[in-house]
Write a structure and sequence with these properties.
Helix content is 45%, strand content 15%. The protein is an alpha/beta fold. It has a single domain, classed as 3-Layer(aba) Sandwich (Rossmann fold). Strands 3-2-1-4-5-6-7 form a 7-stranded parallel β-sheet, sandwiched between helices.
């Protein structure tokens, strides 16, 4: 038995139409999973699905606002109807509003918390009965280095990602008896559209990241593919509630 084989499995990837989400979707697809790409931007999701199809992978796009409980429930029902079930959930949807705390409005704070953290709760809750009926499953949550560190220009983002780690631990303990493993990955400085914006908005960020990262480079979305497969496969059946950095050594460097 290949413990990393995901043939016949169905994975929902929120925010799977770009960046880290797309990288994880592609990794899961390479291992044999069928992918439900979930996002608000229908055109972007269609492009992601087309790229997966070009690699001869099974994928379909589902449009949903993952901050809306009814939309989330409808999305999960649609995926089950389309693919026959759900085995893996990747909670990856996220945004950031880069402002100092004194400049951040309550509405902006809530927008980030809803998108990054509440969506993960809603999607996990909606998938739980489906995973339980299937005899178990996997949930992967996108945290961040800012689950560990603070930052003056991302208080809402950091709070949401710290909350993601604690949500992961709570879901892991709640659902372990149902054979559902829930883990969190903490991406470091990965080269995506989001971090390219950060480099343009935060002076000196690029050089500071390279200086502190022992690997000597920014991460690529390909660096998340193997981790996704590990946490989604039988290889991690006795691992739950952990938060795994994927950062080229940034978090352990002085």
């Amino acid at each position: 038995m290949n413990m990393f084989d995901l043939t016949g499995k169905v994975a929902i990837v929120t925010g799977g139409n770009g960046g880290i989400g797309f990288g994880m979707a592609r990794g899961l697809a390479r291992a044999g999973a069928s992918i439900a790409v979930v996002g608000r931007n229908a055109e972007k999701s269609a492009q992601a699905v087309q790229e997966l199809h070009s690699l001869d992978f099974q994928a379909r796009a589902f449009q949903a606002d993952v901050t809306d409980p009814e939309a989330v429930a409808g999305m999960v029902d649609a995926v089950v109807e389309s693919f026959g079930g759900v085995d893996i959930l990747v909670n990856n949807a996220g945004i950031n509003i880069r402002k100092r705390p004194e400049d951040l409005s309550p509405d902006e704070w809530q927008q980030v918390l809803n998108t990054n953290l509440t969506s993960a709760f809603l999607c996990s809750r909606a998938c739980y009965p489906v995973l339980k009926r299937a005899g178990g499953g996997k949930i992967l949550n996108n945290g961040s280095m800012l689950s560990i560190f603070g930052t003056p220009w991302g208080p809402a983002y950091a709070a949401s990602k710290g909350g993601m780690v604690q949500l992961t631990k709570s879901l892991a303990t709640a659902w372990a008896a149902d054979n559902i493993q829930v883990n969190c990955f903490l991406p470091g400085w990965i080269d995506t559209e989001l971090t390219r914006n950060a480099r343009s908005e935060v002076d000196g960020l690029h050089d500071r990241v390279l200086a502190r990262t022992p690997a000597g480079r920014w991460g690529d979305i390909e660096d998340l593919e193997g981790l996704a497969v590990f946490f989604a496969s039988a290889a991690s059946n006795f691992i739950t509630g952990v938060a795994m950095p994927v950062d080229g050594g940034f978090s352990v460097s002085g």
